[in-house]
Fold these 4 entries.
Entry 1:
Amino acid sequence: VVPSDQELSVTKILRKTTHLLTRYFGGIFAQVTVITIIVFIGLSLIGVQNALLIAFFAALVNLIPYLGPIFGGLFGLFMTITANIDMPFEGFIAPLLWKVALVFVVMQLIDNFLIQPFIFSNSVRAHPLEIFFVVLIGAKLGGIVGMIIAIPSYTVLRVIASVLLAESTIVQKLTRSINQDE
């Protein structure tokens, strides 16, 4: 499909891209797992029914930037209300809802300041600040969809640049970390 003189470069691009994107999606799996565990433990400690279901749903929708954590939290609150509909609101449900909301706030803080920067920067071998700017640019260019595809797209572009523009000093500095595996 490609000219013979470009075969080696294309093979190198495909190999590096596959490696880094596999690490990225592994990082997403790790993020979902860790968030599920955090929310499950928090909700179980305060006695919420269906804690595992709520935690897993919250972890999955958390992958959607901005709106995902809100949907996950609202789902948790809704499930808590419906599971305790026969209980008095002011004496039981309201305090429980505050505790559920606190679990989700704590989870978001842990996710935003510890899990995401660590997992995503290590999985695609980019600095956390780099990832932050890439997601912001993705948001500006494509909204929520742009944010979701920003990191994988940036990863592919970095790999292509590292192979095809290897002599450029700027490209060498930006792609130094992805060449660690070689």
Entry 2:
Amino acid sequence: MTMTPTSTKTLTISDETYQILTNFSTINSSIVFKKGNLIRTIANAENILGEYVSEEYIPQDFAIYDLSEFLGVISLFNEPDFDFDTYYVSISDDNKASSQYFYADKSMVTVPPDKGVELPDTPIKFVLGDKVLKHLLQAASVMSLPELCIQGDGDVIKVIANNTKNTTAHQFSYEVGKTSEQFKAVFKVENLKLIAGAYDVTISTQRLAQFTLTDGSLTYWIAMEGSSFFGGQ
């Protein structure tokens, strides 16, 4: 499906955007769409923020309480069109099927801050390939490891699937870059809700990491766990 808006209040949605929204529903079951082409979500715990630059231009602000349900309704249609009203969106297709889906009260949804996240300049950057990411997450699942650690020893950067609370736990790692820094950035695997792809990764001493798809369209900011450290701190 490609975007073919016919007025300021109608649009269709691309397959890519549908996939991103499916991913965002794992971060927060609710979402507030803002007028424009920037779609953002934040976890209720405010430790994961996602931001996507979509093909579509959303014509107005509205909230959806159950995003998975909303996407399920969309899946009932063959190349659906969306017509936005004050209180609901009408969904229809060429087969004459239609639905009215009502918006939620925005006060019921955790909304990302208006101001975007800006990380300070940092030398801790590397590219995390799509196959490497997939392999690490598979290893964490196979060995029941709850964390991924991005670790620098002053020479190389490794991403390690492990359990920092168990010194005898199995590990699985990849070397992904070079660094002169010593640090360990610890993330719960359950918080790495990344859609499949290759990412430009930035590690900040603010205990926050930025994962941006290499095409620049999608970015996640994910908070580190308390056991993370930089330069021994």
Entry 3:
Amino acid sequence: MKTAVVTDSTAYLPKELREKLNIYMIPLSVVFDHETYKEEVEITTEDFYEKMRNAKDLPTTTQPSTGEFVELFEKLSKDYDAVISIHLSSGISGTLQGAATAGTMVENIKVYPYDSEISCRVQGFYVIEAAKMALEGKEPEEIIARLDEMKKSIRAYFIVDDLTNLQKGGRLSGAAALIGGLLQVKPVLHFVDKVIVPFEKIRTKKKAMNRIVELLGEAVSDEAEYQAVVIHGNREEEAIAWKKEMEAKFPNVEFDISYFGPVIGTHLGEGAMGLGWVKK
């Protein structure tokens, strides 16, 4: 059986990597003043943060239509028997549901929608693994079983400079955002049951980042090898420095750097920082 791997743009996988591993990407969009831009296709991350700084109103985001999924799956059905479609958490977006609905509308190809229950480059961990296994000719059920195994060790924590965007976009409860604003804390956030919730309230960004490093240390204390990714909201130099600091501490962890692109950046805002990891 020949299996295709599909993901959405919020995995923020470089185009060269997608091409190398035969990964198909369907974009979400960001909307500024009624102008819609498909992320990773029609707007760069640099342009997005520039526009956001100058925007009067917070941009909004939209998921791909079911029709876009149907079109992609029909095209893939000419060369593939199955599709594993891996998407950002169903708790913060209807993208996965769109893929699932489209899967019931196409013939000659079996669609396996997969909820990463997370987003960004940590979602990409699943996508890369699935793509490598698909290239090796593994059956879809075997790939899904491996993704479920990865889910047991995947963790991600992030910090935002301001909780307002998350609250306005409905991705964080008003109470949590209000408390953060009143106390001037930098809560460490994470995903629980597919939605974003505060993990711990910490006074400064530096202390919050140090706490995330502690959490990584607790997770990787066994003999196993891990891969991790530093994710930044237009703070590349800060991300590079943080990566170097952690590389010196954790020789059994392979680190990479990624970014919060337009759709996720809309909700987290500029200056957000995150770290995710998985056991190899």
Entry 4:
Amino acid sequence: MAFSLAVAGKGGIGKTSLAALLILSLVERANGPVLAVDADPNPSLGYALGHRVEKTISELRNDLLDHIRKLSPGMTKDDYLELGIQECLSEGRGFDLLAMGAGEGPRCYCAINSVLRRCIDRLSKAYPYVVMDNEAGLEHLSRCTTQDIDVLLIVSNGHPASLQAAIRVRELTEKLALRLGRQYLVLNDAVDSGDPAWCAEQARLTGLDLLGVVPTDDALNQCSRRGQSLGQLPEDSPAREAARAILEGAMSGTAPALEG
């Protein structure tokens, strides 16, 4: 069974960058391929990984709707999706990328999320690791896209709005009784992240254990602004080293010691 990680939080706080760095860290371990899932209707995980997506789950669903009346008598909708999943997998170096893509028309994201969830359930059996970059906000929780996850990382930059978003994510996971393992707070690119007392206070405010801190990394910010792969970051970049420590803590269930 795959070990699964999901990243959630307010938009614009570095969720996708963290997800990409975790994927790259898993690839470094060379313990098997990683299933990278971009569950954001506005996909950007591919850019962060320097990888192009050829076909999305949204496009697969649209194909099914276009051809549903033309399916042969022996082919079910599930059979069609099973075949189409392989077309949606974009193969990278050490990872395969699956993207949800944008919906078309009103109130169609729930259906796409349902298809995405089924695809993940089927594919995860073939991968030792799954990393999911969720859309900003809370909708992925109410649609149960973030389900059956071993570790949920809730990202905040310490700003009151992002902390409040982290609190709402935690509260909603409890209210919906989602099947989740451990939940942690990750502080990203926060001005006071070098102060252990300040970091501990942010964790207390959210009601979450603090798993790690990703410090400000100018090289990462430059890559993000230019749409470049984070794989171009130096091996010893602060962000990459922090992601490795966060991954180790997530897998072991132990928060790493934070430097003051």
